[in-house]
Amino acid sequence: MVADTSTHTTKPSIGDYLRNNIREYGLLVALVIIMLFFQFVTSGVLFRPVNLTNLVLQNSFIVIMALGMLLIIVAGHIDLSVGSIVAFVGAISAIMLVKWGLPAIVVVPACLVVGGIMGAAQGYWVAYQKIPSFIVTLAGMLVFRGLTYVVLGGRPIGPFPKDFQILSTGFVPDFLYFLNPSPEVIKNMVALVAVLALVGYAIYAGLRNRRINDQHGTENEPFVFFAVQMAVIGVVALFIGFQLSTYRGLPNVLIVMGVLIAAYTFITTRSTIGRRVYAMGGNEKATKLSGINTERLTFYAFVNMGVLAALAGMIITARLNSATPKAGVGFELDVIAACFIGGASASGGVGKITGAVIGAFIMGVMNNGMSIMGIGIDYQQLIKGLVLLAAVFFDVYNKNKGKG
Amino acid sequence: MDNIILEMRGITKTFPGVKALDNVSFKVREGEIHALVGENGAGKSTLMKVLSGVYPAGTYEGEIHYDNEERRFGTIADSEELGIIIIHQELALVPLLSIAENIFLGNEIADKGVIHWPQTFSRTQALLKKVGLTESPATLITDIGVGKQQLVEIAKALSKKVRLLILDEPTASLNENDSDALLKLLMEFRNQGMTSIIISHKLNEIKKVADQITILRDGGTVETLDCHKEDISEDRIIKGMVGRAMEDRYPPREPKIGDTLLEVKNWNVFHQHHRDRQFLHDVGFKVRAGEVVGIAGLMGAGRTETAMSIFGKSWGHKITGEVTMRGQPVDVSTIPKAIKAGLAYVTEDRKQLGLVLINNIKENTTLANLSAVAANGVIDERQERKVAGDYRNKLRIRSHSIYQEAVNLSGGNQQKVVLSKWLFTNPEVLILDEPTRGIDIGAKYEIYTIINQLAAEGKGILMISSEMPELLGTCDRIYVMNEGRIVAELSKEEASQESIMRAIMRSGEKH
Fold this sequence. Notes:
heterodimer, A: mainly alpha, ABC transporter involved in vitamin B12 uptake, BtuC, 0% strand, globular, B: 511 residues, Rossmann fold, 6-stranded mixed β-sheet, 33% helix, 27% strand, translocase (chain B), ATP-binding protein, sugar ABC transporter (chain B), hydrolase (chain B), EC 3.6.3.17 (chain B)
């Protein structure tokens, strides 16, 4: 048996490494700079515990939908209908909860199924009838919005029972209160412990990964980068965790979001399904000829998107405590923008969950920061548009420079 | 007429990390056909891009003299103005525009932006006549074959008052009839005083038309041969290209033929798009263990369609017939089922159909059999690395690691990655569709060696190729296809270029 010499490569210099991976580091650096910038111009309002909590509550649904949208975009498609699915599922949940009086434990799964069916209804035309996703989901966007008006009769429905609202406005109870060293500062011990544990695990997992890579001769990023990255993420996470713990602790949606981010990162990087989606986005014909059922993959990518959009729809509806026909207007654009800011390629096959998540946070921090500054919605849109263009230009510029 | 129309002196062109051209000199006499040959990566295309201004003056070192004057072309338009027209390997035609629109694209006969159609059409007609086409100028490019498209490109060059015509691999995707027609046309133009430079891998064609041959190797000029002073053999050219005499272009093999593996009977297929037209008629063949079987035929004979319709019904419709493996009927109605039955199909078009170019070697290698390196849907990274590394060593894929993207590999190495992918599915019969198209002679030899190894391991190989010498050099048995039918089956002893062509011609008369 020949030894696996193939993975040995010459060690790149730190400069080379930075140049090759500028996209990933650049994105993280951009997020930190944007956060610091708004912290400064809002005179410290941005990082206040109340505002941080708001930031999470306001953006969780963008992040959740960006996870599904990234898969759609990597598969080489687009979904314009998510804003309308959000509104429709919100309306359906309101009818089931308020008019029919069903319990939340029944309504939540039922709504997820409804979202999946809406995704499937579109996925069928894209995957099996080969109609471009742009057209199918544009139709879906109009149809679902229209349906929302129909089922709501043009009037908002609310308010909701408490057990449904917990989904978006609830917090993880402080069952670790007995560990609290200073109850006058820290109001929720679970938040602090959870963040400490997470940061600890991230460092442990990172180091373990490096060790495994070393054993197999796979290239590691230079230790300096690893350390700096871990330090930055660790400090930011701990700071946010501390701030949250001095208010009401961890919002439930933050937990949901965290679990989903972890799950989708795993799916995209480690699973066969993820690998096949990337291959399909890179070259659909070659992937099909390799014996992969590309139609089914595309179909399920849309079903998945529908389910996530339904979840987002319920979170928003619960947060607003009312289902309105205008809910979710324009969300699809924020979600798609988050993916592209995060480095996804419009031609498919390229993109990362971490990128999309950071992209969503960049959008979220900008929305929140500009609102605090009192910038009108008109200029907010203008600035967000320019940031999107700048991020994608940065990608294209880097790519061309690499080619020489 | 020893008038030098073009002289390139000491051309050096560097890309980041690579010296593509190193002090190349190149002289072309007026009114001749000058062939430029060399292996892939020898620098032929780069040299022509320097000449035509794709790489503007200043980005390379050296001088270009054209018509006894030094020229510094900043853009393609500058060189075109002097009558230097280049026709690239990938044709630059817009498929959904008409012939006339394509010919005058960017150069429209117009008055203040309003196109003069009658004049456009009449001039197009005149140009088409010169290249021997009878198509209407209003015909869409997509409706004519590749051979005619190539002629349209030439007509387009003629419309620009061409003096020096550069053709990059003009016959690479043409069948023999179309190639012959094209070469004849070039010779006719030569008689009218036009100069052409032709880049080609097909040495027999070069021998037929070239007045002089310049050989490039590794970015440098090796030599220029004058075909009128001496008789230049193909082996002589190859020696110059590879820097050594290639004793035999095909590695020897002792066939050890076993039982019948794949057998196809009464295979009838209707056309994918023209649904009431039958395309394949009662095709039948068999491949035995350890045997290399060829399918010869002209472009459009139905060879690729036969392979694709068998491989998971990827082409055609209303498919009927029987496929057996070791005598047992097998279901090949979907690609996964065909793979399970022990078939693998290495496509004709590596880049479009074979590889995910933006993915790396490792990811491409395992794509068709990902579950073999995964448990419960989770990829075992270590296992996958090992598989990819093993194939990289076994097939000698030249790359800096298994993490190199497929797009950055040479044609030969790309083909080896496609082969790795299919070998990892452990097939019993491999269908290879034009396995050596567009790859250089050294890499071809390596691919033939791999084919021989596979046959020695007892696998059956079905090889489709448009290069007859390749079929004759590697196959134990050759089927000849024409117009959707198998028209002859020739043993190694019976097969020759003449017997194959005769079979094709004779079947053509019958129908």
